[in-house]
Amino acid sequence: GAVVSQHPSWVICKSGTSVKIECRSLDFQATTMFWYRQFPKQSLMLMATSNEGSKATYEQGVEKDKFLINHASLTLSTLTVTSAHPEDSSFYICSASGTASGYNEQFFGPGTRLTVL
Amino acid sequence: GENVEQHPSTLSVQEGDSAVIKCTYSDSASNYFPWYKQELGKRPQLIIDIRSNVGEKKDQRIAVTLNKTAKHFSLHITETQPEDSAVYFCAASRDFGNEKLTFGTGTRLTIIP
């Protein structure tokens, strides 16, 4: 299967700072990337869908001004958590898909654990 | 939007026995149903999936059944082994690939040696 990476794998930051998480498709072109958030012992909740070159589509209840998503190329999407607070501490996972590459499923990144002090 | 319910939330079975996890969905337009296995702190791993034009699919010890009329699908694991212990999530989507996935609430499966 295809490979999706995320960076960093974990990050600790102070309350009020911003954190950027990168999601890369390493061996295929990802026309669509998805960002999920997973709190401890809970399910994955979709935050937003991003298509290369266009604005992200956010799920209901997700603040687009707080969670900035940029999908500037077919291999990179970034999620920036602005003015992070302790309640934003979570496991953030991206997934990527690109049917043009021949893959017909979403491939998940390894996740980024964010801890806000 | 889509709503996916999953039961049970926890399941313990004796090694060698079978485990069954059930999910229901609400969106009649959903036609792709993957199952994921997630170990602590790691990414979800696709273990099997089924599309709506198929009623059952099997891959070695794992099988999935789909009843599109009743809007429910199930995961069956036979001859369970300790390494099957993990959290399992069902999901539903209107299409594979580019459509968003709605996940169930998860089942923590524990295999008792």
What would you note in describing this structure?
The complex is a heterodimer of chains A (117) and B (113). With 117 residues, chain A is an all-beta fold. Chain A has strands spanning 4-7, 10-13, 19-25, 32-38, 45-51, 57-58, 67-73, 76-81, 90-97, 107-108, 112-116. In chain A, strands 2, 4, 5, 6, 9, 10 and 11 form a seven-stranded mixed β-sheet that branches. A four-stranded antiparallel β-sheet of chain A has the order 1-3-8-7, with no helix packed on it. In chain A, β4 and β5 form a beta hairpin. Chain A is globular and about 40 Å long. Chain A starts with a strand and ends with a strand. The model of chain A has no long low-confidence stretch (mean pLDDT 92). With 113 residues, chain B is mainly β. Chain B has no helices and eleven strands. Chain B has strands at residues 4-7, 10-14, 19-25, 32-38, 45-51, 56-59, 62-67, 72-77, 86-92, 102-103, 107-112. In chain B, the strands form two sheets. In chain B, strands 2, 4, 5, 9, 10 and 11 form a six-stranded mixed β-sheet that branches. Chain B has a five-stranded antiparallel β-sheet with strand order 1-3-8-7-6, with no helix packed on it. In chain B, β7 and β8 (72-77) form a beta hairpin. Chain B is globular and about 40 Å long. Chain B starts with a strand and ends with a strand. The model of chain B has no long low-confidence stretch (mean pLDDT 95). Classes of the chains: A mainly beta (117), B mainly beta (113). The A-B interface holds A 31-32, 34, 42-46, 49, 60, 91, 93, 95, 97-99, 103-106, 108-111, 113 and B 1, 34, 41-46, 49, 89, 96-98, 100-106.
Oligomer: heterodimer
Q: Gyration radius of chain B, to the nearest Å?
A: 13 Å
Q: What is the C-alpha radius of gyration of chain A, as a whole number of Å?
A: 13 Å
Percent of sequence in beta strands of chain B: over 45%
Output the structural class of chain A: mainly beta
Summarize the amount of helix of chain B as a percent range.
under 10%
Approximate shape of chain A: globular
* Number of helical segments with 4 or more residues of chain B: 0
Low-confidence stretches of chain B: none
Question: What string, H for helix and E for strand, traces the elements of chain B in order?
Answer: EEEEEEEEEEE
The number of helical runs of chain A is 0
> Biggest interface in this structure?
A-B, 25 and 20 residues
